[in-house]
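Q: Hi! Curious about what Transposase looks like structurally. Here's the sequence.
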Amino acid sequence: MVCSAFDIARSSYYEHRHQRSRIDVEQLQLRATIAELFNQSRRSAGSRTIMLQMRESGLDVGRFKIRRLMQEMGLTCQQPRPPAYRRAPVERPDIPNRLNRQFTVDAPNRVWCGDITYVWAQHRWHYLAVVLDLYARRVVGWALSDRPDAALAIKALDRAFEQRGRPQGLLFHSDQGGQYASRAFRQRLWRYRIQQSMSRRGNCWDNAPMERLFRSYKSEWMPSTGYLSAQEALRDISFYLVERYNRQRPHHYNGGMSPARAEEILNSLSGIS
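A: Let's find out. The predicted structure is below.
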């Protein structure tokens, strides 16, 4: 009677019921794969990234189909907000920009960059200082503290200097933050015989490798709601910087190799142990 009222054939009605009752196993497997890759990236991968990962696994699925399935499952990738940079109140003519955006370095332990960012943990802000070797974009030192003072920057520098075997002839570049312009930090550089370089006032592009590192960490790995405790933040940040970023994550600057792998190839070619 209902089919007659809507002028629909009874066979069409039964066919429609049959299609709805069937379970599409292939579709369910595809959804499960997308959800797994999305969760592995900590909700940072979009349809393009998931498509490339699936193709590496031998699954040829179009990007628009993946996007449609992600919309149906309510999976939305997290993209970082545009950063707001605070301009330094006073220019530092005594510390020139010696690096001058020459980010391509021919050997390790020639140029290091440093910067500080903030991390939400234990219902308050904590601060992360990182030292980056520009040769292969490898993290060589870092420190976490609840105070963004000069001691934090010094601790990250001390770790890098000891772990890299006390190298000589270094250039250390940073922005014009008060931690790096402080007397204590400059005295530590003088003790290690490290030459200092600073970005121009209010110019984030002069320290672009560090900004890119922090963007990768915050968009790919850091939880959107922060960490429950400082100890959890310490463990998670250590794993990301030392293991995932240095040893697992492919870097475009290194031709798709991780920073640690790029340095290993250089050491094998030059005979360095």
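A: A fun detail: The chain has a mean pLDDT of 86.
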